[in-house]
Amino acid sequence: MNDMVVTPWEVGGIIDYNKLMKEFGIQPFSDLLRNWNVDIEPMHLMRRGIIFGHRDYERILEAMRGKNWAVMSGFMPSGLPHLGHKMTMDEIIWHQKAGGFAHIALADMEAHVVRGLSWDKLRDIGELYLKSLIALGLDENRAFMYFQSSNSHVKDLAFELSAEVNWSELKAIYGFTSETPLAKMFVTSVQAADILHPQLKNFGGPKPVVVPVGADQDPHLRLTRDLAARISIFAFEGIDRGVRVRSRKGSKYLRMLEKELCFEYRSYAEHIDIFGERKDIEEFVRNFEVDIGGFAFISPSSTYHKFITGLTGGKMSSSKPESYISLFEDPNIASKKVKKAITGGRGSAEEQRKLGGEPEKCSVFELFSIHLIEDDKELEELRKKCINGEQLCGNCKKLACQLIEEFLKEFQEKVNSIELRKI
Ligand code: TRP
Ligand code: SF4
User: Which residues contact 384 (CB under 8 A, 6 or more apart)?
Assistant: First the structure.
């Protein structure tokens, strides 16, 4: 029962994030916080360890100092957006404010095969996700939002990517069986295409892209990062004073490239060693690849947030309405759910005054730290009052109820005033 299972279709058991990072090869985000070298302050979810891991985020930090980069993520519009989705939405918006162009996929193709919902229904629900993003602060003028089913760039790219994937690989990554429908296998390529499409020529060509997701989505990222490399012509490897460039699609591309080089280089049958600044060389070769019709994808970066605990303890699940709060919920009902939520409190008031509460086990404290309290000092005060027994759960929940009601009222008013552009 306690065995940890983390796949895109199933999450269960007790999650050990250190073990997860080791198994998947995810890097700890805490290392980055120690060497944070950009002017923008890390997001509250980063500061609080809720975003616990990443892949290649260094590339995004570097891109933040330049200009041309993007943030990309997606949502399966199979139920109303809830606080779990809000976390990803906030991450997208934070990255947009940090300078990235935002790309947002509504995964209606995935929801159609995995959940069996009709296209019309998916469109209606999907629009609520788009409105939510805007109400939470997404700048529509620096965002591209789309439904998978109506984006032919994504669908065409998905088809091309699927040519690089074979059955044994799918089986190993996703645990598919001989009963798995072809469409369910194909949507893995669609998701890879979601992630890579910001780098298509029509979207401005190769660029760093960060994908904020829950850790369950990492298999998609591993596959996508692999595909990004496999489908592109040139591969890079650092050498002394420069870069070794190989071609994955035959040496004729090396011979074409060497004619255009304006760097010092040495040519071999199977590779070219090019000397100079690594960044400049890679950029030059990527531009060349795009010119001759290749993809030249840069491996996408990612961040991973923890799974949020349901209000009833255990997993937050759309099949258990008491376990989550939808963004469209009546604020009074939301408040009632918070009142009933599992806390880190003790058996009696007396005991709690003596021993203090356990905020790290408390779903209400989680609400504060992810959604309701932006200010670190305020949160820390609350945590201290909890652990030294000064604050009892009743009062603490009152504050949470008040904050969540205010948030939902304001949010819902904003949503109602939004007129969506046609997409
Ligand atoms: N599969 C994701 C989910 O279940 C949704 C999704 C679709 C996605 N395309 C994406 C996430 C691209 C990140 C990037 O929630
Ligand atoms: Fe949670 Fe607040 Fe109770 Fe502490 S006092 S356990 S933070 S509800």
Answer: 390
pTM of the model as a whole: 0.96
Pocket around ligand 1: residues whose beta carbon is below 6 Å from it?
8, 72-76, 105, 107, 110, 191, 194-195, 211, 213, 217
Token reading at 14: 């007790």
Cα 229 to Cα 248: distance, rounded to the nearest angstrom: 9
201-222 residue pLDDT tens: 999 999 999 999 999 999 999 9
Query: Which atom from ligand 2 is nearest to the alpha carbon of 393?
Result: 3
At the top level of CATH, the class of 5-231+299-305 is alpha beta
Query: What are the extents of the domains in the chain?
Result: 5-231+299-305, 234-291, 321-416
At 281-301, the pLDDT tens digits run: 999 999 999 999 999 999 999
CATH topology of domain 321-416: Tyrosyl-Transfer RNA Synthetase (1.10.240)
